[in-house]
Amino acid sequence: MRIIEILLQGEHIPDIQLVKLDREKGVKELLVLAAEHRKGGVEGEFEVFIEGCDEPLKREDLLPESENGQPTRIHIHRCRKIKVDVTFNGATKEHSFGPGTTIAAVEKWAAIKAFGMTPADAAEHVLQITGKTERPEPDTHIGSLASCPDCHLAFDLVPLKRVEG
């Protein structure tokens, strides 16, 4: 029996979970396993997303193995898309992403594509949750921060260094 390791994030799964499944198991079995890690007894039609993919896996799919020998990063969520608003210098841009998209990918989109920064300038900025001081880690899946039925997040693109004083 071959085992596949998965780093699992998801809606109402507050911390990344390392789970193991038989390689012959698939999406249906992962959904059952994810329910054991979900907090709050939330129910509904959850989907399985590979990190960085906007489309969910099909229920009959087997789980893909990582190509680099590391655990596969997977996200479980009820929202098929998360609408993200990013505000910088008083302007707001919006885009929808799959819930398995990382904060780093959203930050890159916002800084370079939406607001036209150079990669060097973009590296000096981070995403901060609007109205808070919380700056999620770059490898956090955005779906970990959003809940159904809202399926929406708002960030400010701010300088990496906080000016105290």
The rough form would be described as elongated
How many angstroms does the end-to-end distance come to? Answer: 59 Å
**Total number of helical segments?**
3
Low-confidence stretches: none
Share of helix, binned: 10-25%
Report the order of strands and helices.
EEHEEEEHHEE
The Rg value, from CA coordinates, equals 17 Å
At the fold tier of CATH, the topology name of the largest domain is Ubiquitin-like (UB roll)
Task: Indicate the topology.
Elements (H helix, E strand, L loop, with lengths): L2 E8 L2 E10 L4 H11 L9 E4 L21 E6 L4 E7 L2 E7 L5 H12 L4 H4 L2 E5 L22 E8 L6
Parallel strand pairs: 1-4, 5-8
Antiparallel strand pairs: 1-2, 3-4, 5-6, 7-8
Observed structural traits:
165 residues, alpha/beta, Ubiquitin-like (UB roll), 2 domains, four-stranded mixed β-sheet, elongated
Summarize the structure.
With 165 residues, this protein is of the alpha/beta class. 16% of the residues lie in helices and 33% in strands. It starts with a strand and ends in a 6-residue tail after the last strand.
Structural summary, described in words:
The structure is a single chain. The protein is built from three helices and eight strands; from the N terminus they run ββαββββααββ. It has 165 residues and is of the alpha/beta class. It is elongated. The protein has two domains: 3-77, TmoB-like (Ubiquitin-like (UB roll), Roll), CATH 3.10.20.270; 82-159, Ubiquitin-like (UB roll) (Roll). The model has no long low-confidence stretch (mean pLDDT 92). It has helices at 27-37, 103-114, 119-122; strands at residues 3-10, 13-22, 47-50, 72-77, 82-88, 91-97, 125-129, 152-159. The strands form two sheets. It has a four-stranded mixed beta sheet with strand order 2-1-4-3, with helices on one face. The protein has a four-stranded mixed beta sheet with strand order 6-5-8-7, covered by helices on one side.
